[in-house]
Amino acid sequence: MNENDLLILNFEEVRRRSIKVWKAIPKEMLNWKPDDKAFTCGEMIRHVIEGEFLYHQILIQRGSAALSDIPNPYETKEFSTVEEELVFAKPYREDFLCFVRALSKSDLESVRIDRSDVGYVRTLGDMLLRIAYHESVHTGQLLDYMRTMGVERPNIWD
């Protein structure tokens, strides 16, 4: 396995486990949130899916400045169901994974992504790992939401 294969495997496994959690949240609980300052379950799912699209744009243009120049297809789309979100996100997800597959080892080590607007500049390889970690953290938060709601949680450690 090379670097790209490992990155793709990680992205696919993180998303597979996220989807298990997302689909286990009862539809009537998608608007639940633990407090007024938190995301609802649906907002968190959207945040993860939209975040991947936005991160992809940042990677393509090598910095946060990309976000001021692109139309965001998620801005006007209202969250409806997990299944609809996944269908809508599919072409963006495929573009992102194709981008990752096409990277060279040199790209992962030498391309710098400027996110100094939020306090850091990192290599492309580092940023890719951060993207997967971002999704994983939110999956963990949703598992905690489900515990608090008294909803059965899926086994993501299969």
From TrEMBL:
- Which InterPro entries does this one have? DinB-like (IPR024775), DinB/YfiT-like (IPR034660)
Parts forming coiled coils? none
Domain of life, per lineage: Bacteria
Q: Where is the DinB-like domain?
A: 11-142
Q: What protein is this chain from?
A: DinB family protein
